[in-house]
Amino acid sequence: MADSYKGEEKREFFRHRHEKPVCYRVLDVGLDQEQAPQLAKAVSKNLSAAGILFSSKEMPKISSLLMMDLDYRVAQICREIEENALIVDNKLFGKVVRIEDTGSGYDIGVAFIKKFDNLADRIKEIFG
């Protein structure tokens, strides 16, 4: 088993353990969302103001856009998420930045889309 990392923490936001159900859908902002894939189910592992790590049997592609339904309000960082992340109709939007094969599924790292990103305007046009 690998030793715990003992170097300097380089992450901007602290990660909170958050093991809760997550439902997500892979988006294609160029398509009518009625043609979008069905919701996939997952379980979150940790959550920060900048993103989430969850486990899923499904594997989205790297850089995929996701629309996520999760109960982040019970987390201590609720305010930071609401201040920074794009939330439309109580759904969080994010981009897949890391995928790790666990042998029994995938750990998927997602960075939340920020409210003022260029992509946020396109998402708001479709879902807002």
Task: Give a structural overview.
The model is unreliable at 1-11 (pLDDT under 50). Helix content is 13%, strand content 38%. The chain is mainly β. A 6-stranded antiparallel β-barrel has the order 2-3-4-8-7-5. The termini are far apart.
Mean pLDDT across all residues, rounded?
82
User: Per CATH, which architecture?
Assistant: Beta Barrel
Q: How many DSSP E strands?
A: 8
Task: Tell me the helix content.
Answer: 10-25%
What count of structural domains?
Answer: 1
Low-confidence stretches: 1-11
Radius of gyration: 15 Å
Topology:
Elements: E1 16-17, E2 21-27, E3 40-47, E4 51-56, E5 65-70, H1 78-84, E6 87-88, E7 91-101, E8 106-112, H2 118-127
Antiparallel strand pairs: 1-3, 2-3, 2-5, 3-4, 4-8, 5-7, 6-7, 7-8
Short description:
This protein is mainly beta and 128 residues long. It has helices spanning 78-84, 118-127, and strands spanning 16-17, 21-27, 40-47, 51-56, 65-70, 87-88, 91-101, 106-112.
